[in-house]
Design brief:
2 strands, mainly alpha, 65% helix
């Protein structure tokens, strides 16, 4: 890892999120003093972050770990492991449930037609089916689906599916698609910020009432 790149990108991502070092420390669990040391280091001084700290900071800043550490040019790119880390962390704050759906069942194929067409690889499905017929094994094709007990996520996913279909069919261009995404993310951040402030005010009011 090039520590000078990590230092520069850490500061860049923190400022882009409009976080102070103290706010980032609260979000990530990495101390403000450590964050300051990372941001003010260089290849001569040397203050290499642990993998654990780098991953915490990347998650708090909503950037990929590869980008933060200097091995990727696109900070918005999220690798599989980045996504899984965020998913596990998210489960601490909102309910995440997983259902395993058997798509060998014709009824499930009809009920979840959009999902079946989107996530099932037809060639693999067919090969699996014929293999089971040839060997006498029971045909099974299970796909896992995620559900979130968070209305912001549910609303976004429903609307995103519609917009992405328009984008994939070239009905809207990439610029409009990205503008829509940025607007959605901005609105969600603002609403969650307002909800958090309301929650704190309510807690404060209840505490004062208890006095």
């Amino acid at each position: 890892m090039d520590i000078s790149i990590f230092s520069r990108r850490l500061k860049e991502a923190r400022r882009a999120k409009d976080f102070t070092q103290a706010q980032l420390a609260k979000q990530s669990g990495v101390t403000a003093a450590t964050i300051s040391a990372y941001e003010n280091t260089d290849s001569k001084k040397g203050c290499n972050p642990s993998l654990e700290n780098a991953a915490k900071l990347a998650e708090a800043l909503s950037v990929s770990l590869d980008w933060l550490c200097g091995s990727a040019a696109n900070k918005s790119k999220v690798e599989t492991v980045d996504f899984l880390r965020m998913l596990v962390k998210m489960s601490d704050r909102t309910g995440v449930s997983i259902d395993s759906v058997e798509f060998a069942d014709k009824e499930n194929q009809e009920t979840l037609k959009n999902a079946f067409n989107s996530v099932v690889d037809e060639d693999v499905f067919r090969d699996c089916y014929f293999h089971c017929n040839d060997t006498g094994e029971k045909f099974s094709y299970i796909v896992n689906f995620l559900a979130f007990s968070n209305w912001q996520i549910d609303r976004f996913l429903g609307e995103w599916q519609k917009i992405k279909a328009l984008y994939n069919s070239n009905t809207i261009d990439e610029n409009l698609y990205k503008i829509w995404l940025d607007k959605q993310f901005s609105d969600i951040e603002q609403k969650e910020k307002e909800e958090e402030e309301h929650r704190k005010e309510l807690e404060k009011s209840l505490l004062q009432g208890g006095d």
